[in-house]
Amino acid sequence: MAKRPATIIHVAEKARVSVKTVSRVLNDEPNVTPDLKARVLAAVEKLGYSPSKAARTMAGSRSYLLVAFNDRRLTLDNWRSERGNEWIDQMLYGAMLRCEQSGYHLMFELVDRESDQLEKQITAVLSSLQPDGVILTPPNCENPVVLGALKKRSIPFVRLNTPVRGQGPRVYMDDRAAARQATKHLLGLGHTRIAMIAGDYKFSSSILRVETFEATMEAAGHPVPEARIYKGDFTFEAGVAGARALLDLPDPPTAIMASNDQMALGVVSVAQARGLAVPGDLSILSYDDTIGVRLSAPSLTAVRQPVAKMAEKAADMLITASAAGEKQIAGNTLVPFELMVRASTGPAPK
Amino acid sequence: MAKRPATIIHVAEKARVSVKTVSRVLNDEPNVTPDLKARVLAAVEKLGYSPSKAARTMAGSRSYLLVAFNDRRLTLDNWRSERGNEWIDQMLYGAMLRCEQSGYHLMFELVDRESDQLEKQITAVLSSLQPDGVILTPPNCENPVVLGALKKRSIPFVRLNTPVRGQGPRVYMDDRAAARQATKHLLGLGHTRIAMIAGDYKFSSSILRVETFEATMEAAGHPVPEARIYKGDFTFEAGVAGARALLDLPDPPTAIMASNDQMALGVVSVAQARGLAVPGDLSILSYDDTIGVRLSAPSLTAVRQPVAKMAEKAADMLITASAAGEKQIAGNTLVPFELMVRASTGPAPK
DNA sequence: CTCTTAGATGATACCGCTCCCATTCTCGTC
DNA sequence: GACGAGAATGGGAGCGGTATCATCTAAGAG
Q1: Which residue has the higher pLDDT, A325 or B263?
Q2: Of B255, B244, B241, which is closest to residue B284 (Cα–Cα)?
Q3: pLDDT at A1 > cutoff 70
């Protein structure tokens, strides 16, 4: 009863044409008469035929597969702590749907940025899966080992949301402008003692945000003392520790900006524990705008990263290039961010 | 510079053995002397060789690929509304990590349960991807078209979290016991006027939960009038509509149980809008226990579904069977649920 | 010491497709 | 009317593995 799926040969026989002609029709190649084309399509329909990806990959120059390399530690940490992983969620949404449109597939891989096996891991995936393109997320998109492995094999790739230029095509948002706008939002509310909980400096966005924050504050006449920058690592716990350290300063901040949502939620929990009203006593601003900050009490003002759009665009670039047989991906794409003003930021206390 | 990956032939040459011997080593087949095995492994290492999945799929009887069929509508709705999709997240976590351990891969497919092309969609995926196994989530795991297509092609599959037995192997939780425990939790708090917002009846868990709720109430001497069951469809909006309808009853409930998290959050929003204290005036209990209900204010008491564990187990069953060359999957697996008691349920008001 | 037998290895035919290279056919051209 | 260009089709060689089967070796039996 194990019904074997139909092959291209069955289709060819049924349509009374050569295998090659079927292939032409399937791949929309030119020089096929409408008559034959119709016969082939009819046979395909009747047999419920769908070409084997494996065979196509072997024989042809395309595999109809994109791979997304995510950071293993970051990803697993999020999963384990049951915080969910909206980055991945949104990537799936954006990239997968785009892939589907063109008969492509998307595969997730977790790679360990700290492992000395990193290059081997990447290489193994590339040679066993032979993807037509790769999507890199931070911090992989800034990792020379990862980039080197891809370049050595001339696998087209697109980097998601890295501010680092010159290392290949990327789809990104303007981190600098976002940090500036976020800072100005707080300044506009009358805050002058603003602190920041930075992200892991292995992510260059983290550095950029801090720098821009400092520059913007300085320009407004409120230079930021070093103590008001806390180095975090994107975890909830870092948010808690950072908030405590910052609020224990002799001149505690009236607003705290966190470089991602989980740290911001950590800040919220500390504020609540200390009986500080948000935003009455303390304003809180976050980056990422994942679901947690929209549902938290109060809902958080946040810089929204259009992850789904970025992923969709990245997939689009890779598929387009692959379909055209190009190994080189065209230019960069800037996608707009948005400052979602919600209930966690308000006028500075007197 | 496009370095071609090494093939099994290169390995064979380097190790001075036949291609077949390399294949034996790679697949842990018996009857290879340690000497040769060592030579082969050394060559593999030196060349950074990793066998092509495509070639293996074509030549062999395994593809090292599992496919998870998710419901397209449900999934996309969740994504579009930016509520996230923790089911998928957790499946990735559980199933993907299990796959990784055995050199397998997991691929997500969205299929439209309402489409008349459903069977064609499934068939296309099966014949183009040739997965070694399929994981089905509700409501696909109860869809005769889906099940039929899989059976026709003898593709092993495991159904996740369906109470329907006799249609193939499944990994599931005891919905009946969960509904009973949830109901008793509320009864224990003194509630007698308890209402339920049911899920889409296309998911048989929905029906089971309602029935068990009714039976448990009846046994406790508090039969549930029909008006206290609202038929929802798993959306936030259904939760809102349901809460309004139920609270507008002449004898409004003191507790509402919702068949999933989004509907429960809808109930919370109505309660807040009407100035009802939770749980002072109204207790709320939910199913699924996704991240939203843990972060909401107040955090919700919920029946936790161990989705990651279920997915891991499902992947495990499929991989084990596939490795053993069996087309038949062994039995069912019951995984434990847990009632997470949080701040949204409390003693019934006087 | 020959015969059996199981273990160890290799040769080779595919698997289902794409790609390169004929081959045939139809025109338009001089 | 012979000839070349280009369109329409087909033939057949791989792609990189696995599976079947043949071959060869060495250990144990009589």
Answers
A1: B263
A2: B255
A3: no
